[in-house]
UniProtKB/TrEMBL annotation, chains A, B:
Lineage per the UniProt record: Bacteria, Bacillati, Bacillota, Bacilli, Bacillales
Presence of keyword Transcription: yes
Domain IclR-ED: 68-249
Transmembrane region(s): none
Domain named HTH iclR-type: residues: 5-67
Full protein name: Transcriptional regulator
Superkingdom, natural source: Bacteria
Matches recorded under SMART domains: HTH_ICLR (SM00346)
Entry keywords, A to Z: DNA-binding, Transcription, Transcription regulation
Gene3D superfamilies hit by this protein: 3.30.450.40, Winged helix-like DNA-binding domain superfamily/Winged helix DNA-binding domain (1.10.10.10)
Keyword Transcription regulation in annotation: yes
Matching SUPFAM superfamilies: GAF domain-like (SSF55781), Winged helix' DNA-binding domain (SSF46785)
Protein source organism: Gordoniibacillus kamchatkensis
DNA sequence: ATGATTGTTCTCTATACGTGAACATCGTTT
DNA sequence: AAACGATGTTCACGTATAGAGAACAATCAT
């Protein structure tokens, strides 16, 4: 870990520990989780609080994330051209399918839903926006991963593979085969791999250079989605091709 | 600036400079804005990037905010009990008024809209959620400020007063009078102070101790809102009183 | 080609960081 | 009440390190 500012790194780690906790946290608990002295954690908190990144509950002296992070997070979205650009396409797709439609992007070795439009049906599936998940886990993510360099794929598959249902893919070789198949046919469809009874259909968005960093997917209860899957595949592909073309992509 | 970690403070300042810029920024520009050496800024960026708080565009080497901030910002909202709790009340109010309805909270010496439901009318006014603004600037904010301690009020009014329209309040003494009036009657209504042709009606939410940290407001074009203002005042007051009461407030 | 920008790397010293322990405040338990 | 255990907060100190400044590399414009 050279040329890294240790206290800055610690402050980042501190903020991120709040992601895995639903409650406020105190100095002692943070000091345990981060393996830092209480004094150091306290100084970190004082500094972060003075900048609005952390706020302290006066009643119980516990700390939680501050509103400045809300501002910054929102700014990420507003600076994110693609979500602005893709919005009308998502809306159109949501209207014609009535199912959950998501815009997924890659960030390092994770995937994130940066936008979504919920299904109108009373019985519908839901995803959590803005939360990271592994690139091998969902249709929307795999359809991005499939177009990455082999080194990236190998690096990700050489790590621990998390499973979510009894059907989740867990064999690296099997996943790799599947990725090649996706690359061949240009889309992905899967059921039960992330959530039982749920089917996702996803296609990649290409930028002007042909690189894939994002995808659009339709997700819904299998008994509604599977009977019309060919129609949905056609619609997602039509949408992502139109977007890719408007982004300057000149491929098939 | 004692017992503050300077590099952490710098990293916070660095992230916040992106709030006032709509584009990516490079080392040199940041170094100028922050008055830090290029080397120092570079190290900050490397560290923040390794934690996902910053990302670099490989094409032009410029930097922008990273997706981890999106995660953290979203977490702030999910941890914010009030917005979850107030949601159904907002929806009801939006449905019966058809105008923009906002939930506003105080953070230090600023106000932030943490939730809103847009008007259904084709001609409608819009606010930017999650962005700070001064506590004296809008109805929603003033109705919170009015119930703060005098020291807080004086501190805020002793600073620079920003104006937004030719009608914006700018005389500290006049604002203070207005705040007292708000306190008397329990709500605020104003036109043209933040945006010309726009009228806001706001009432405070009280917690179990009677403290005011949030408000609900109805905002819309004056020619639609003013004619029915008494009705809207009654509805906002009924809503905030119901919420306050459910939060444990036992006042009038 | 030249020059003026950039981003990145390097060396070096003042200092700011993190530790560890002491102190202060809480609730609980006995 | 009194003693305990847990908290959050403060402090002094030595070492690791953060930040300055200059050199280097890589662009882009002229």
């Amino acid at each position: 870990m050279d040329n890294h500012l240790s206290s800055v790194k610690n402050s980042c780690r501190l903020l991120k520990t709040f992601l895995d906790s639903d409650k406020e946290m105190g100095v002692s608990e943070l000091s345990r989780q981060l393996q830092l002295s209480k004094g150091a954690v306290h100084k970190l908190l004082m500094t972060l609080e003075s900048e609005g990144f952390i706020k302290q509950n006066p009643a119980n002296k516990q700390y939680s994330l501050g509103y400045t992070l809300l501002e910054l997070g929102n700014k990420v979205l507003r600076n994110h051209d693609l979500s602005e650009f893709a919005k009308p396409f998502l809306r159109k797709l949501a209207e014609s399918t009535n199912e959950l439609v998501c815009l997924c992007v890659q960030d390092e070795f994770d995937a994130i839903y940066v936008d979504k439009i919920d299904s109108k049906y009373p019985i519908r599936f839901n995803v959590e926006a803005y939360r990271r998940f592994p690139l091998y886990a969902t249709s929307a993510a795999r359809v991005i991963l499939a177009f990455q360099d082999d080194e990236v794929i190998d690096h990700i598959l050489s790590g621990e593979i998390r499973t979510f249902t009894p059907y989740s893919l867990k064999d690296p070789a099997g996943i790799k085969e599947r990725l090649h198949a996706i690359r061949q046919r240009g889309y992905e469809m899967s059921s039960n791999l992330r959530n039982e009874g749920v089917t996702g259909i996803a296609a990649p968005i290409r930028d002007a250079n042909g690189a894939v960093n994002a995808s659009i997917s339709i997700i819904g209860p299998s008994d509604r989605v599977v009977p019309v899957y060919q129609n949905f595949i056609d619609q997602v592909l039509a949408t992502t091709r139109e977007i890719s073309s408007q982004l300057g992509y000149r491929g098939k």
